Amino acid sequence: MGAGHDHQAAVTNAGHRYRGRLWAALLLLAVFTVVQTVAAFGTGSLALLSDAGHMFTDVLGIGMALAAITATRRVAADPQRTFGLYRLEVLAALANAVLLSGVAVYVLIEAVRRLGEPPEVLTGPMLGVAVLGLLANVVAFGLLRKGAQESINLRGAYLEVLADLLGSLGVIGAALVIMTTGWWWVDPLVAVGIGVFILPRTWRLARAALRILVQAAPEHLQVTEVHDRLSAVPGVAEVHDLHLWTLTSGMEVASAHLTMTPDAEVGPVLSAARTALREDFHIEHATLQIEPGASPGACGAVEW
């Protein structure tokens, strides 16, 4: 039982450890969102506007990540919430993906409209603001990079910042091309490139979040392999009602009924099954119900 609770604590603490970094990234990107938005309308650059819109979703994404972390901490001691509010993290990641997809679609539509008659843009201010935006994204990227390895919520914000960083590079490139060649079409073309770059990554994030919400088995775990491994545990005659799902990022959960052979003992069977799940599949939290074969006294349900 202790291993499961230790793992839950580790998942909960993952967001709290990076709370200060999230706040720093939020404030930094919020300031530059305003700067880029004003500059985009002032210069007439769609590429810069798309980058500003993308940065705005970064701010919203990080804000939702912070809200999910705060809510999880507040309900940790509520006995009616036996799993806390771990799913808020997943909901925040899904909302990030939806917002970012909306921005990408808008930019693509507007870019196609402008390709027929691209307006002139003020390349000097466009370039200067794009460089500042790039620097802001580099700092935010560094703040979120480590936490993205531990939390799907932080990963969503991290991916948005990564995409925005590359988008800033595209805006810088567009400004330089316009300054040297006068080719105004590059501005909407770069905006299209940013939109095309954003969409596949947001869809993958949304797909990962939806898999968790519908309680599908984790992609990296094969249900048949887990079934066969539990069936191979000494003293197990049959495995049924096996379920695998992800509660939140980094926390896989399993439940199963194990029918024992007549001569098996509950303790050794549970210990071996627990070891198999932990060592072979990294599943720390499981509920296993033991069903006796011909041994009526060997019955029970154990959770760890």
TrEMBL record:
Gene3D superfamilies: Cation efflux protein transmembrane domain
Localisation per UniProt entry: Membrane
Segments forming domain Cation efflux protein cytoplasmic: 218-292
The name this protein goes by in its record: Cobalt-zinc-cadmium efflux system protein
UniProt cross-references to Pfam families, sorted A to Z: Cation_efflux, ZT_dimer
Residues annotated as domain Cation efflux protein transmembrane: 22-214
GO cellular component, one term: plasma membrane
Molecular-function GO terms, alphabetical: zinc ion transmembrane transporter activity
Homology family: Belongs to the cation diffusion facilitator (CDF) transporter (TC 2.A.4) family. SLC30A subfamily.
Membrane topology category: Multi-pass membrane protein
Region forming the signal peptide: none
Superkingdom in the source lineage: Bacteria
Transmembrane portions of the chain: 22-49, 55-76, 88-109, 121-144, 156-178, 184-203
Keywords: Ion transport, Membrane, Transmembrane, Transmembrane helix, Transport
InterPro entries listed in its UniProt record: Cation_efflux, Cation_efflux_CTD, Cation_efflux_CTD_sf, Cation_efflux_TM, Cation_efflux_TMD_sf, CDF/SLC30A
